[in-house]
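subagent[fold] <- orchestrator: predict structure for attached chain, return C-alpha cells only, no commentary.
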Amino acid sequence: MTSYAVLLRGINVGGARPLPMAALRSALTDAGLGDVRTYLQSGNVVLTSRKSAASVAETVEREISRTFHHDVTVIVRAEAALAAVVAANPFVRPDADPGRQLHVGFLLERPPSERIEALEARRVAPEEVQVTGSEVYLWCPDGVGRSRLAPALERTLRVRMTVRNWRTVTEVMALLAGPT
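subagent[fold] -> orchestrator:
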C-alpha cells in the first residue's frame, strides 16, 4: 500500500468551485481509496492505495467530476516523492515565513528546458525561482501577493500546476508520515 498526497487545483479558493471536504472524503473512500484525510478546505488530500500515482489521479478526477461536476487538475505525489520535494527546497531559511514567502508549484509534468530558461529569464530580484523535476520552488520575500513572478509561472512553463505555500507542504507531509 502506498501513501499519496493528492493536490487539487482551484478548489474552494475564493468561493469558486466549492467542494466540501467531508463529501470528498466519502466519495474517495467509496471509490476504493483508503485512509482518506484532508487538510484545510483547499484541496489537499492524503490517502492510501495499491494503484499507481497516475491511476489514483484518474480515480480522483473521475470521482470529482461524477460527484461534484467539477473538472479539476489533480496532481498526485507518493509519500517518498513529497519527502524528496521537502528535502530539495533550496530556499528554506530560518527567518522565512512559510505561509507567505516560500511556495512550491507542483507540475503535472516536467517542463521542457526552453520553458525553464524562459521562466528564469523573467526572475526579478529579490525573488528566486528554481525548477527541479516536476516542481518549481519560489522564494517571494515580499509575499506571493506582491510577486511579479508567481502569476507568470504556469503561463511561462506551459504546464498545468497547483501551488502550495511551504506551511501547507510540510503539513501535508506530516499527515502522510503520521498515524492514520
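orchestrator: received. Logging for downstream: The beta strands are 2-8, 34-39, 44-49, 74-78, 102-107, 128-132, 135-139, 161-165. The chain has two domains: 2-81, 83-177.
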